[in-house]
Amino acid sequence: MTDRRAFLRNTVLALGSAVLTGCDRISESETGAKVLESAEAVTRRVQRFLSPSQALAKEYTEADISPVFKPNGSILPDTPAYQALLRNGFADYRLEVDGLVERPSRLSIEDLKDLGTRTQITRHDCVEGWSVIGKWTGTPLASVLDHVGAKPGARYVVFHCFDNYEEDTAYYESIDLDEAHHPQTLLAYGLNGGDLPVANGAPLRLRVERQLGYKHAKYLRRIELVASFADIGEGNGGYWEDNGYEWYAGI
Amino acid sequence: MTVTRLVYRHRWPVRVMHWINVVCLCVLLGSGLQIFNAHPALYWGNRSDPGKAVLALEGGQDAQGNPRGTTRIGTHAFDTTGVLGASKVDGEWTARGFPAWATIPGPGWLAMGRRWHFFFAWLFVANGIAYVVWSVVSRHLTRDLVPTRADWRGLGRSIVDHLRFRHPQGEEAIRYNVLQRLAYLLAIFVFGGGIVLMGIAMSPRMDAVLHWLVDAVGGRQSARTIHFIIATAFVAFVFVHVFEVLVNGPLNQLRGMITGWYRIRDERRETRHD
């Protein structure tokens, strides 16, 4: 019985470590990663089927706002272009909007405010698992897109940012036009009633309320409408996407 | 002499779906712990305010500079160095919630943990739906799982029998006993259904249409905490389940779940010599 028990225990241990090693091998293989990645398309299709494209993320009350809106990722971009803007209190800031648009534009924060404003208290869910609630004020991206006029063939909005990761890789993100036209998708310049703090993405950041935190690009420099993001960065639609995270961040 | 015979106990859909579940639960647990490790703390409500965690696995150092892992439950702190909070990855002390031997992948790798988790989550959901549909249509649910009136009457005796490790023999062993029925129903509908719903409740996209569910459980961080608690309940279920298999003729039980055929002792002609 003791022999049998030892045999059983060793078998279980050996099997367990073989399975774990196997899992790590699959993770590191290209095919394994590809197969596992197929779940992203299922998630996207099922979620879009189950929730209407214009369904609003829940909005909270003033009492629900987090004491501190935890900044994550870059909290102070060190690029010369950003530092120059920061020294001047962002007075010279202009958002570039180009790509597949009828009227390429350079918009100041005041220009954006003239296009319309919206304030919303929403929950921000990080891919790591934590949540914070904040009050955002900004211009609906849909108004900006109406202003510049998307050309036929434009499918994605790409957000180019001032902050670099790994020294020289610029942060970027992308969403499709459906998400871009959602009423709560904002180019935000205000947080909790004040100006957007530097740590949270001043002077302008994206809010795309039905996706995880890494989609909400901070320190926006330029917005580009494209037919495909295959030629941008490593071609996966965003900095974290190029590092293995899902482009569709609905869960 | 004991007379035994083989009976057909588990139909093929049960067997196939059972083993798919085994794979799914193992991967979901390992990859779930990997995801948990990205922020190894649980909260109640909608927010994760610093200092308000109901459970936290923290890595740090003691006064001598030695690595130290601390598990905090409410206001109580436990030293869990080596397992929870701080453990070795490839020989190097690392601050991480759960140790490398429990996570998929082993080293900290959130993006890949998520891929594993969601791939097997969909498989788990598809398998679960297929099982429930099949169980209703084939009447497996009403015949084999829902306790009969006689089952309910024998509940007390069944509990006592289980505590004494006395299990049904012969014809009685072909059917699920009342505790088995209740445990399976709990695992399938409460744990299985609950963990999927709490997973969905963590999705910002699904919250746009399911915020009543998120509100009902107290908030998104509550949903995350309940997801974790149910995962723990699944682990407890598996421990009891495997224990029952081990004490009731593991090879016979395994054959039953692989081939469907299960050996029983024929009581009518049985004479006891042991």
TrEMBL record, chain A:
Gene3D superfamilies with a match to the protein in the record: Oxidoreductase, molybdopterin-binding domain
Domain Oxidoreductase molybdopterin-binding: start-end pairs: 91-227
SUPFAM superfamilies to which the protein is assigned, alphabetical: Oxidoreductase molybdopterin-binding domain (SSF56524)
Cross-referenced InterPro entries: OxRdtase_Mopterin-bd_dom, OxRdtase_Mopterin-bd_sf, TAT_signal
Name of the protein in its database record: DMSO/TMAO reductase YedYZ molybdopterin-dependent catalytic subunit
TrEMBL record, chain B:
Domain Cytochrome b561 bacterial/Ni-hydrogenase: start-end pairs: 9-260
Record keyword Electron transport present: no
Keywords for this protein: Cell membrane, Membrane, Transmembrane, Transmembrane helix
Principal location class: membrane
Cross-referenced Gene3D superfamilies: Transmembrane di-heme cytochromes, Chain C (1.20.950.20)
Pfam families assigned to the protein according to its UniProt record, in alphabetical order: Ni_hydr_CYTB (PF01292)
InterPro entries, per database record: Cyt_b561_bac/Ni-Hgenase (IPR011577), Di-haem_cyt_TM (IPR016174), Hydrogenase_cytochrome (IPR051542)
Bilayer topology: Multi-pass membrane protein
Annotated compartments: Cell membrane
Regions crossing the membrane: 12-36, 116-137, 182-206, 226-247
Protein name: Thiosulfate reductase cytochrome b subunit
Taxonomic source organism: Luteibacter jiangsuensis
